[in-house]
Write a structure and sequence with these properties.
Layout lengths: L2 H10 L4 H15 L7 E6 L7 H4 L3 E7 L2 H11 L3 E5 L12 E5 L8 H11 L5 E7 L7 H5 L8 H11 L2 E8 L4 H14 L11 H12 L1 H5 L9 E7 L3
Helix pairs in contact: 2-9
Length: 241
């Protein structure tokens, strides 16, 4: 990912509606996972730590991050509460963790099958892999290009790659469900006009707050069902005993 995009994402983590909504949704799902407390968690591609606060209530957290400025931000923000590893897949030892997470990271890896295999090999029997990824190739936009995404995932594709690796799917659901029609329409219009706008232009504070509340409200639906469409996918997978 470009360094300037990295910086922009790190700065927006605490204010932009998308980050606020994702944290609310993922936090609620994690809090309801059985036998999740007290885990040793490795988060790969942590950035400046936007999702780390979501993981800390559930166990000891190690953050792996390849960008030096983001690592400095992690260490400044969390101190001794979080161990920070300098590197990414292939540069760090993945072993010794009960849970490995990747929040909007897998799409940045060209050989995602090799990444999943490395995670599988590192996890103990019964260990979990939790990730979020962008969904629907139809939503491909200039933002994906700027962010150096290799793909947006179809639900069946993500399930297939995980199960072929050996994982058992515990849960898979779309999210960013309510705002999906508006986002789809906007991207199709921008594509027709040849525009390559970033998704992370911050709207006016009032609008930003409304969007964050709409997105966050999906957590109540997700307590009872998996959503049939959305801008993103979340999967909880387990390495069998």
């Amino acid at each position: 990912m470009d360094r300037d995009v990295y910086r922009a994402l790190d700065e927006l983590n605490e204010t932009h509606w998308w980050f606020l909504g994702r944290r609310a949704v993922v936090s609620d799902i994690l809090s309801r996972l059985p036998q999740f407390s007290g885990r040793r968690i490795l988060d790969i591609g942590s950035g400046a730590g936007g999702m780390i606060e979501t993981l800390l209530p559930h166990g000891t957290v190690t953050a792996a991050e390849g960008d030096s400025a983001s690592r400095e931000a992690l260490q400044k923000r969390f101190g001794e509460r979080v161990r920070v590893l300098p590197g990414f897949l292939g540069d760090i030892d993945l072993a010794g963790h009960d849970v490995i997470t990747m929040f909007d990271v897998l799409e940045h890896i060209e050989d995602d099958r090799a990444a999943l295999r490395a995670i599988w090999d590192a996890l103990p029997s019964g260990g979990r892999f939790i990730c979020t990824v962008p969904a629907f190739k139809l939503l491909w936009s200039g933002h994906d290009v700027m962010s150096h995404h290799f793909r947006r995932y179809a639900r069946a594709e993500l399930i297939r790659k995980l199960t072929e690796t050996g994982f058992v799917i515990e849960r898979v659901t779309f999210f960013n469900f309510f705002l999906f029609p508006a986002i789809l329409a906007l991207r199709l219009v921008f594509r027709a006009l040849g525009r390559k706008d970033s998704d992370f232009n911050v709207p006016a504070p009032f609008v930003n707050g409304i969007l964050a509340r709409i997105f966050s409200a999906e957590r109540f639906l997700l307590r009872h069902m998996n959503l049939p469409w959305g801008v993103s996918l979340l999967v909880v997978a387990r390495k069998p005993e």
